[in-house]
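Hi there,

I know you've been waiting on this one. I reran it after we fixed the sequence typo, so this is the corrected version. Both the input and the resulting structure follow.
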Amino acid sequence: MIYNEKVMDHFANPRNVGEIENADGVGEVGNVKCGDIMKIFLKIENGIIVDAKFKTFGCGAAVATSSMATELIKGKPFEEALQLTNKAVVEALGGLPPVKIHCSVLAEEAIKAAISDYLVKQGLDPELFGIKPGACDHDCESCSHV
């Protein structure tokens, strides 16, 4: 499997690795078929994501997509971060092999899960922001995101 230079850079030198103590939102998703697990931590002030960190157990593509996804949402309003798609993560990385696209889907879902957690903690219904519970069934072979 060949990864491009940008993917390798985000794998070898991942940005935003770690946890945020007392995070405003935490989201964890995983894919039992491939074993990738992503956990995203968000610090949100006045609706803006001021910090994002991740812990990922998985392949190089899983680490790279987590790294890139956190980079793409930092400094943005959470509503804008909700619009981040797996395709945008793949494009920002300069592409991924087809068999690794599911990693970008996990990154998108982990961010949505963390924002959903934040909204619930604020007493808001995530569905009002377009977050549907259990939207990802992690059946990557038949996923419409790929």
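Quick highlight: The mean pLDDT is 89.

Best,
R. S.
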